[in-house]
Amino acid sequence: MTRSVLPLAAVLFILLVIVTGFAAQSGMHLQDGMYRIGVDRADTASIFAGDPRFDVVVTDYQTLSANRNSFDLIIINGRAYNLWNDRSRAATSTLRQDYSRYVTIVYAEQEDLYAAYPLWIDVQDVKSELSFSATQSGQYISAKPDENPPVPEGAVEEVAIPEPTSAVSQEDLRASLQKSATENTQVSRYAGILGQKSSAAATATTIRTPSQLSPPLPFDTIILIFVFIFPMYFTSQFCMMSVMNERIERRGEILLSMPVPKTAIIAGKILPYFLGMLAIAGVLTLWMQADPVILLPLIPVILFFLASALFIGMISRSFKELSFVSIFFSTIATSYLFFPSIFANVHVIALISPLTLIVLTLQGTGFTAMDFVYSTALFWLTSAVIFWVCIRNFTEERLFSEHGFLTRIREFIASAIPEKMPWLGLFLLGALMIPFVFMVQMMLLVLFFNLPMPYSLVLLIGAAAFVEELAKSLGIYALFVRSPGWLTWRNLVLGAALTALGFLVAEKLLLLVTLAQIAESVFGSILFTSLQVLWMPFLLHVVGVLIVGACLKAWGRRGFVPGLVLATAVHCLYNLVLILGWLQ
Amino acid sequence: MNARHVGLIMKKELRGLGHEKTILLAILLQLFVAMFSSFLMVGLTSMYDPAAMSQYSGYRYGIGYAGNNESGLAAYFENSRDFTLHRMDLSTAVQALRERKLAAVVYVPDTAPDAEEPVVVTLYTLQNDLQSAIVEVRLKDAFTRYETDLRKVRSERLTEEPLPMSIPGSRTGGGTNFYEFVYGLLIPLLVFMPAFISAALVIDLITEEYQHDTLETLVSAPVAFTDIVWGKILACELLVPLQAALWLGLLMLNRIAIANVPLILLHVTLASAILTLLGALTALHYRERTAAQFIFSTALVVVVLFILAVPSNPLNLIARLAIGSDAPENWLVLALVGALLVLVIIATGKYAERVRDRIHGS
Description:
The structure holds two protein chains of two kinds. Chain A has helices at 5-26, 42-48, 61-66, 86-108, 113-116, 170-182, 185-194, 221-248, 251-257, 262-288, 295-315, 319-341, 354-363, 369-392, 396-399, 405-415, 422-448, 453-482, 489-519, 522-527, 535-555, 560-583, and strands at residues 35-39, 54-58, 73-76, 79-82, 119-126, 207-208. Chain A is mainly alpha-helical. Among the domains of chain A are: 27-114, 3-Layer(aba) Sandwich (D-Maltodextrin-Binding Protein, domain 2), CATH 3.40.190; 243-416, no CATH class; 448-584, no CATH class. Chain A is elongated, with a radius of gyration of 30 Å. Chain B is α/β, with parallel strands linked by helices. Chain B has 13 helices and four strands. Chain B has helices at residues 3-20, 22-35, 37-48, 72-79, 90-98, 130-153, 176-211, 215-220, 225-253, 261-286, 289-309, 314-322, 330-361, and strands spanning 61-67, 83-87, 104-108, 119-126. Chains A and B meet through helix 1, helix 2, strand 4, helix 4 and helix 5 of A and helix 1, helix 2, helix 3, strand 1 and strand 2 of B.
């Protein structure tokens, strides 16, 4: 970026401040005038005059009933009449909310507050964690209601009988009522999440009236995404652009010709962005007055973003491609981080996202070293592998080639397999693929988890098998395209065996280290074939690669996709037999 | 300006996009979002309004009840179709809740209905949990009824009553915010997303020529520089109504009725043309992608924020058109946007000519 940007950037910043002020004053006019209501009395109309969503018409009773259908709602003599359509129903609900806000304002003025608000509810949160294997569908977590009261399995902790009176004074309650009636509940809910530590005084009143009882928000984490992940996303954009610019302006050539190791060049390129992202996250942590421990789970995420930025910057041919690929990548990465963390507190599966650790820390629960390994291991490993691939490919030939997107990815993989030692290369490639496979499968698990039971299982079986077969056959495919003559039957069998071996070894290692809990559930048995018997999955992996390899030999490169489909089918069949046999 | 040349450049750029297959990623992304939109709908809606969740479940929840046995509250729970009430010891009930064998636990003190002090009920629920969000909505209903009863008992102590009003409708408040969320937020934003993408795309297309040093080659061809710029702008602009229509189609597949589709597309096309032209101007000025994208995205935030703060802005009009309410001022706004567009077109034309002269001069 040049310095010529600065003056305009400064002007834009000043404009931003002005516009923010203007917007704060004028409000957001997105839902203005959605509903049209007719009212017969001016004092009733004044209740709803403050809500821009309503277009209020005050007129007499005859006109209202004559033009019944041109209003979403009419209010005659303190009685609201709606129409039989969605818009009118929505208008009715909005009207009800506005009316209850008005009622609150009137009642909060009462001298005897406890006559206007005789019932108060003291909400106490109870923490519960469910083990993943306890539920198989994820649909309804709570137990089936029974006629008899349930008997807890664990030891019963003594719970103190609550005091019959409230510890909060009448005037404090009145103030909180008046506040809740005037503020915008949607905005305040989100603001409350960020200010958790600082607004401790405000949350001291856990007691509420029934109408204030808004359900707890299970989606706190989206705020964290916006706060922590967006700056990262932007910074990694700049990193991508800088890599891309060097390739386009061919400045990279000069760098490459210098007597500096490639590792040093890349480290030097990445380091400022890494420090910058860490600094931003640090400032945000300070601003939120949160425990600095939340920076720990962010480090592997930052590395993952940067590794991917480097990779994307190295493979895109044009800016258009860069834009699209980076949007695509960031959506996928954000969903991977976001979806599981919704289930923080509910499910161990939430821990596959490092953001869950942040949520837990903000809630004051904290996390153990084991949790940290569990949820960040995949990020560390994938980042390391991507960096390694990028370093190996940081050559003139790769950087300035004009090949297509998929071709370049294939070239990158092929170059990861040294020509002199293809066997070791295939073994390592098989092993290195595992973290990616796990990541994709985790993503699939989280996405399919929301579907009803038979569908989620069937989809997961198919998709998981496909992902594994694709990952395994990439090495053979890349080698085949590089030199088709290499793929003799002997080499194919040997290559398949070594890929499968690498795959299996890495799979079991990673499983042992991290994912034992998920692996024991019914979903786990599809994703990661069982830990006990080793020769069966090994054979399965070998057969998968052999099928794809044979199709490649028979039909050339066109045989790749049919081969994959065939291998996936075999894999699914194996899984079905295994799981059906196990379920019966 | 030569229309044939503009058309040629436009086709070249569109073919380039198709050839690079990266546009496929954009469409894939759109499908990815749409495919999981059922989850997104549930997720985003409940983010916007957890009360809406309650419509997704028809289920009897087990509730633990401890304390005052004569309270009127117990009757409401027992008669409800949503709950099964278990009278239990408080400590046992809370432990059962912790093990998820109950959905919530309620403790009611012995305070008399007509007492001076309030009745303070203690409610134990699971923290930050989807399920307890649903349960709490149902509980709220019973609590509100009991509050009304108590208020009646104590009514002599009140000095002023609010204007009475009877409002028809559903038991729970769910649904309304879903409606407002879909029409008043999701549709305007999704429909304008292609406009933002196209503006970013035109910057890529123009700066690419500068940074690849391919501009000299293009300029020496018998195509005028301004034709090249217009071709690129048109290529990006053409994608907007197509993508916006695709979004609306996907939403309709999700059974969300949308009225006035052609008019909405007209609004989007005109407004996005201004954005695309502004993107082109930024790109022509900076000639370098990083700088142009940075300035443009910052400016975009300012512009969008400003537009949202103005009443009857195009986004608001799209929301109102989509729900089928008549928005007579939309023609006036359309005319204003059109006039602004003409001004920006003239400005872009002039600026492109200046840039051309500079290239030929050097």
